[in-house]
Amino acid sequence: MNTCSKFITVIFLLLCSVLNVSAAPARKIDKPPISERWFGIYVDTDRVGFYRQTISETSDGYCMEGFGSVRMKVMGFSKDASMRETYLVSRGMGLRSFDVEQTINGASSRVSGKAVEGAIRLKNETGGKVIEKLLKHRGEVFPGPALNIYPLMRDASAGKSYKLSVFDPEELKIKDVKISVLGEEKTPEGISAIKLRNNLYPFVNNDIWIDGQGNTLLESVRDGLVTTKVEDPKILGSFVGNLALAKKDLIYDFSLVRIDPPIRDSKKLTALEVEISGWNDALPLFQEGGQLVERHGPGKVNIKTGSLAQAVVTAKPLDAYLKPADKIESDAPEIVAQAKTLAVGAKNQEEVARLLASWTAEWLKDTVDDGGTAVESFKSRTGNCQTHARLYTALARAAGIPTRFVSGLVYMEGKGFLYHSWAESYIGDRWLSVDPTYSQLPSDPTHLKLLEGHLPENMAPIISIIGRIKINVLDARY
Question: 14 near 221, Cβ under 8 Å?
Answer without folding.
Answer: no
